[in-house]
Amino acid sequence: MRILGISAFYHDSAAALVEDGRIVAAAQEERFTRKKHDAAFPAKAVAYCLAEAGCGMADIDHVVFYEKPFVKFERLLETYLATSPRGFRSFRTAMPVWIKEKLFQKSMLRKQLGKIGGTKSWSGSLLFTEHHLAHAASAYFPSPFPSAAVLTMDGVGEWCTTSLGHGRGNTLKMLKEIHFPHSLGLLYSAFTYYTGFKVNSGEYKLMGLAPYGQPRFVQTIMDNLIDLKEDGSFRLDQRYFDYCTGLTMTSAAFHQLFGGPPRSPESPLTQREMDLAASIQVVTEEIVSRLARFARQETGETRLCLAGGVALNCVANGKLLKQGLFKDIWIQPAAGDSGGALGAALAVWYEYLGNARSVNGDDAMAGAYLGPAYGQNEIEGRLAAMGAVYSVVGDDDLIASTVDSLIEEKAVGWMQGRMEFGPRALGGRSILGDPRSPTMQKTLNLKVKYRESFRPFAPSVRREDVAEWFDIDADSPYMLLVGDVLDSQRLRPNREDTDLFGLDRLNVARSKIPAVTHVDYSARVQTVHRDTNPRYWDLLSAFKNRTGCPVLVNTSFNVRGEPIVCTPEDAYRCFMGTEIERLVVGNCVLRKEEQPEALRHDYKERFELD
Amino acid sequence: MEMAREVWSYMGTRKKFWLLPIFVMVGVFGTLIVLTQGTAVAPFIYTLF
């Protein structure tokens, strides 16, 4: 039995294929089309999933879409009705899209599936799940837990913005919901917009900015924007927001409350934006904490599963883990809408078809390495066709020469095995660096990634070594938990350094691994496990043997605004357009100085800034 | 036709039959917006709401 899950038509389209309950493949469309957050029907991702499973469309038993378009339309209509005539501009913008396309998603899906292949009519086998059920299913069913409380939090699906579910065996019962317009995701996005970042993509920048600020607006937010109850439920005062009726996130009242208009995108960041970021982060953590406490009480469970865009807030996740409310927390690596494709497919297998579920201690995500891989011959053929100069080395030499490059403080492009599913690069499509270097963060941000200098980098560490460097001793294979660098690894700050404010704090070396230590000593940790990524684990082991440090800088293999690389060609283009100095693809090693000068190109301007 | 059947079935499942006149009006005026793609329709709709 094969089930194809699809998410599309809003942002981050994706496809996932489940075969007899096993996740065979999952990928986001943006990786193939090279358009960041591509919302189109995921034709290429579907084609990849079919190829990975070695089947055609005719072999698919059910196709499932990750939300219910009519119920979403109902929400739009009722919102416009409740707020009319104020929402007319928004109504006039939304209606053409809905009337021309979105209301006809069923026939559109059928048509697109027909284009991929087969002659199936899909009557009765084209299904639709609710958006938050898809998120909850993506969090619970692949988790390693036999039962768990399940929390989902995002912007909005149909009506639901936050849900509490209870997973037991193969059942997932939804217990409580918070409905639009009261949304934690939209509250966070309102601050993303107000501080000059792009909604639906800049939220993680806001999170990264928070440690530079002081949370001096927390009381203002609590007193005016949100009515937060003890059980974590909340209502947002709509006078301060514009997303129901207008085409922006915040209203004039919001701007007045925080003392000015939104920051213009790309203009210099001031202490005010940093303080706003710190404040909304504190509020978010408080809401998530109260919701989790309520989930614990309601379900009696000691394990928690999380999904939805807010679950990508790894700072809040890390604090939740430290609170000890739950014995264990598992977060879906593709917690955003792309993961809805996978959740929808799993919901059909377990909930709709009633198949049994068994757990064996590991999660079912295979380290999130669910995308395409390329064999050595194919890699060589593709690189040669591009005119690349490479040498092929054995496994041991590959690791040794990569460690040499890292110790020489070179930025290394690392493309190995299957591509990751979800927004994080986890050692399959990564740029790696030496975390001990005090200049590595700046170099990677400005010369390799072309992104804002304040953005922190994450450490990869062998699971066996995590507790010696960070104050978490738990699996964090998907880089979704933040912990602090241990005191024993920290450096004592100079007196002048402690008096610094804002972005001036950036260049202070705080620990033995300054490139991955944020200004508040936090780090977004990825634990690397030998069973899911043996080659990356070997690299970390070799780096540890040479340097005593089992940690590497791991950032996604892309530049700002570009989807993470997928193919060897993507990797080579990014390598040749940036100051990455070494590229390792499979067993091929490429040195920048040996590449033909004619193949160097300007890469920076190629992608729209995110 | 299939679309009308699905809308009817959705309203039955969600017990939202009160939305029917709104669906019809949205259909009519939405079509007008799509066809005109301009602002001529705007005052017409304002008086309606």
UniProtKB/TrEMBL annotation, chain A:
<protein>
    <submittedName>
        <fullName>Carbamoyltransferase</fullName>
    </submittedName>
</protein>
<dbReference type="InterPro" id="IPR003696">
    <property type="entry name" value="Carbtransf_dom"/>
</dbReference>
<dbReference type="Pfam" id="PF02543">
    <property type="entry name" value="Carbam_trans_N"/>
</dbReference>
<dbReference type="InterPro" id="IPR043129">
    <property type="entry name" value="ATPase_NBD"/>
</dbReference>
<dbReference type="InterPro" id="IPR038152">
    <property type="entry name" value="Carbam_trans_C_sf"/>
</dbReference>
<dbReference type="Pfam" id="PF16861">
    <property type="entry name" value="Carbam_trans_C"/>
</dbReference>
<dbReference type="InterPro" id="IPR031730">
    <property type="entry name" value="Carbam_trans_C"/>
</dbReference>
<feature type="domain" description="Carbamoyltransferase C-terminal">
    <location>
        <begin position="404"/>
        <end position="592"/>
    </location>
</feature>
<dbReference type="InterPro" id="IPR051338">
    <property type="entry name" value="NodU/CmcH_Carbamoyltrnsfr"/>
</dbReference>
<comment type="similarity">
    <text>Belongs to the NodU/CmcH family.</text>
</comment>
<feature type="domain" description="Carbamoyltransferase">
    <location>
        <begin position="2"/>
        <end position="346"/>
    </location>
</feature>
UniProtKB/TrEMBL annotation, chain B:
<protein>
    <submittedName>
        <fullName>DUF5989 family protein</fullName>
    </submittedName>
</protein>
<keyword id="KW-0812">Transmembrane</keyword>
<dbReference type="Pfam" id="PF19451">
    <property type="entry name" value="DUF5989"/>
</dbReference>
<keyword id="KW-1133">Transmembrane helix</keyword>
<keyword id="KW-0472">Membrane</keyword>
<dbReference type="InterPro" id="IPR046031">
    <property type="entry name" value="DUF5989"/>
</dbReference>
<feature type="transmembrane region" description="Helical">
    <location>
        <begin position="20"/>
        <end position="46"/>
    </location>
</feature>
